[in-house]
C-alpha cells in the first residue's frame, strides 16, 4: 500500500504513523499549550511549555519557553515554523527495526489508550507512547542505550490557553 492510499503511511518501508497531518492540525488550535518535562540522564530535569500560534492549514509556529520549578517562564525560549506533515513525519519509523502495539498507560494526564512504538538500532531502543485522544507529540518518550535509560520526556499537561 502506498501513501496515496493510506495517509498514515509516509514511506513504503515505514510503519504507519499514529496520526495524519490533518488529525494533528485539527487537534492543534491556536493556543494549544503542552508542558513537557525532559529528564536527560546525569543532568537536571528541564521543564518547558510548547505553545502553538499562527495556526494555519499548512502548519503553525511552535513557541518553546523554559519554565521554572513553579511553572513560570524562566528565560529565553525559541520558536520555529513547522508544517503538519513535518510533525507527522517525526513519528514515521522504519518497519524493519520498529514495532507498534496498542497499550494502556497510567500517566499524569490519566489512564490513556496509546499506541506504543518501539524503535531499535543496535543497543539503542526508544519507546514512544502516543495518546490516541491527543494527536501530536508522544505523551511519553523513553530512550535507552544498552541497559541505561538516557532520556525520558513526559507531557505533564495539554490544554488550550487563550492568548
Task: Please characterize this protein's 3D structure.
- With 163 residues, the chain is mainly β.
- Helices cover 7% and strands 50% of the residues.
- The protein has two helices and nine strands, in the order αββββαβββββ.
- It has helices spanning 21-26, 84-89, and strands at residues 32-40, 46-53, 59-67, 78-83, 98-107, 110-121, 124-131, 140-145, 148-160.
- A nine-stranded antiparallel beta sheet has the order 4-3-2-1-9-8-7-6-5.
- A hairpin with a 5-residue loop joins strand 1 (32-40) and strand 2.
Count of DSSP strands: 9
The helix/strand series, from N terminus to C terminus, equals HEEEEHEEEEE
Query: Which spans have pLDDT < 50 for at least 5 consecutive residues?
Result: none
**Total helical segments:** 2
Shape: globular
Helix proportion of residues, in percent? under 10%
Share in β-strands: over 45%
